[in-house]
Amino acid sequence: MMRRRRGPGLLMTAAVVGTAAHAGASSAQKQAAAQQNAQATQQQLAQQQADIAALAAQQQAATVPAAPVAAPVAAPVAAADPLIAQIQNLASLHAAGILSDEEFAAAKAKVLGL
Are residues 59 and 81 in the same domain? Predict the structure, then answer.
């Protein structure tokens, strides 16, 4: 009596296993490529955000006027004496370039009553 093989046979099993191995390797390569693309995209995004922040800082610096900021109110003595407060106000306007030297001198003389 002859023995009959059961199942797909040795060649069929080898073909299935080989195909599965190839598909697994191909899938792994695709995943690695996708991961590299994701990392490259993240790096580009980070670079773009840094560029945007730098441009925003440059824009903000360009829009800020070149005039110095007015001096803060000095000691309580200055607040108590209105003449000193007026002269300080004139000095800050002169420093900001709003008053010329002649205008500052004339306004100061007027405040002092000279």
Answer: no
Task: Give the per-residue pLDDT at 10.
Answer: 64
> Residue 72 gets which letter from DSSP?
P
The pLDDT mean for the chain works out to: 75
pLDDT for 53-75, tens place per residue? 777 777 777 665 555 555 555 55
36: left (phi > 0), else alpha (psi -120 to 50), else beta? alpha
Helices assigned H by DSSP within the chain: 10-63, 76-80, 82-95, 101-112
- Host domain of residue 103: 76-112
CA dist 85 and 74 (Å) reads 9
> What sign has the CA pseudo-torsion 35, 38, 44, 47?
negative
